[in-house]
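G., the chain you wanted modeled:
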Amino acid sequence: MKKVMAFGVFDRLHEGHRHFLRNAKREGDWLIAVVTPDHIVHDLKGHLPEEHEGDRMEHLRHEDLADDIVLGDPEHDGSWPIVRRHRPHVIALGYDQEEMRRELEDFIGSLSWPLELRVLPPHEPEKHHSSIHRALREKK
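Predicted structure as tokens:
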């Protein structure tokens, strides 16, 4: 079974997220969606997500967008225990996850199994990007 892992905040689930996860699923047989913990979102983006991590996970479950939904690592320290635990064959990355791609490229050489990184195309990024959706909500 070819396992695919996809990381994201998945705050206020929108069509861009859905498109990303559907395409990630096509990269293998089993998709593991990794939801970024609230405190890591704050560290990386400077703000908390609008929805709590448990709610974000529940929305993914409700829409049946992945075979397994897990909470991401509690530390953002480059050790990637979640990857080591699940041993995916592919990590699907969004077009805007450049920093994560660079970190994973440095990391995968330490693994004992082959792991491919695949950058997936965006779906209408001028309309379906979380920062755009957030800005529109803040205007209201």
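Helices lie at 15-25, 38-45, 53-63, 81-86, 98-107, 130-139.

Shout if anything looks off.
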